[in-house]
Automatic annotation (TrEMBL):
It comes from the Bacteria. It holds the Pfam family bPH_6. The chain crosses the membrane at residues 21-39, 51-70. The lineage of its organism: Bacteria, Bacillati, Actinomycetota, Actinomycetes, Propionibacteriales. Residues 73-142 form the Low molecular weight protein antigen 6 PH domain. This is PH domain-containing protein. The keyword Membrane applies. Keywords: Membrane, Transmembrane, Transmembrane helix.
Length: 151
């Protein structure tokens, strides 16, 4: 553990700040833009849009919102049993015996966890775009991994 740092108590969860702010903002902008566009149409234009076209727009907006929500729900949880990595809608539990090294490749949007045998798990719950907050999260996660390493 780095000098002067507090030990991390478990369970501990790291979540990205940027996507948690951006997702609802973009969702609101998307819905507001489509609503404003619809309200600006004259009645003849509104009448010419059929049900299938309306459903297509709702599907596109729904898909965009689902993707935004997936990014916002990403997280990394350290528990006494291991790590729980939630990337979008995929949840993966990794026991401490499987956990390898936490790496942050130059220019990568998030760190990854080496599991050995050329297997890597992206840790989308820590976004490097969060700057100092991400640096602290990586440092804390590395300390937790070091404390629970099974050799």
């Amino acid at each position: 553990m780095p000098a002067g740092s507090e030990p991390v108590t478990l369970p501990r969860t790291w979540r990205p700040l940027g996507p948690r702010i951006a997702a609802p903002a973009f969702a609101l902008i998307l819905v507001a833009a489509f609503a404003a566009l619809w309200l600006r149409f004259d009645e003849s234009t509104k009448d010419s849009v059929n049900v299938l076209q309306k459903l297509t727009i709702f599907a596109i907006v729904g898909l965009a919102m689902a993707l935004l929500f997936a990014m916002a729900r990403s997280r990394v949880e350290a528990t006494t049993e291991g790590l729980v990595v939630v990337n979008g809608y995929r949840r993966r539990t990794i026991e401490w015996a499987e956990v390898g090294t936490v790496r942050v490749p130059q220019g990568a949007p998030w760190p990854h966890l080496d599991l050995g045998d050329d297997e890597r798990v992206s840790l989308m719950g820590i976004h490097t775009s969060d700057g100092r907050r991400a640096e602290i999260a990586v440092r804390e996660l590395r300390a937790v991994v070091a404390d629970h390493r099974v050799d």
